[in-house]
What we know:
- This protein has eight helices and seven strands, in the order αβαβααβαβββαβαα.
- The chain is α/β, with parallel strands linked by helices and about 260 residues long.
- Belongs to the 'GDSL' lipolytic enzyme family.
Amino acid sequence: MVISAMLVCACSQPKQVESDVGKPVRIILVGDSTMATRSGYGDALCQRFKPDVTCLNLAKGGRSSGSYRAEGSWEVVQKLIASNAQFSQTLVLIQFGHNDQPGKPGRSTDLATEFPVNMAGYVEELQAAGAHAVLLTPLTRRSFKGAQLQNDLRPWAEASIKVATSKHVTLIDLNAISYKAVQAMGEAEADTLAMAPPPAVLPVATTDLSKIEKAGAAKSAFDRTHLGGKGAAYFSSMVLKELLIVAPVLQSHVNAETR
């Protein structure tokens, strides 16, 4: 599924324009807490690029595909991409789904009628501005039931894939890739990717922490959604690997020691 999704969108892979040689590349990250500063992989991803890449992490904790626009954060992105003249190209990575799920007042969106429309709207506006959209399906949570990793985010991943296919834009199925990796490592190792170590005795209620994430920055406490330093390094490496496949023009802009 991952490979096929990438192949479908191959026609819109960013290309180097001859007249733009020498200009810097810009990458803008748009998403929720699993991408945001201090709780996600976004900053670690930006650090993997050379100084000739302008990488801006504009992801925010607790945001959904609807609330990110409603609060004005998308307007900030639009102002940034209004003029791309000083950049050879601008890639905007967009990842939502965690806070679009039901039960999050002011953030939840309807999976059938709102979420795909929101994601398509972002893509269309980026295309109109001459920027390259790269959709990412939501990073997996790390909640196990016995030996089996749960994946209640898959429907939002599938919706993102459909949008990418219909709009002919690049997609990275991060949900599938990260799910496979976390399932393989098991719960004990997956818990080391969190913001803090798990408590000695983990109450039953903590298995649902991922579903009651508050709007705003994640707190430095154990849960199975957000990322500490180890988790940020692990998943940023994963995203970089996939990004270089769908956007090979970035190959020369990566710090060799951070690959």
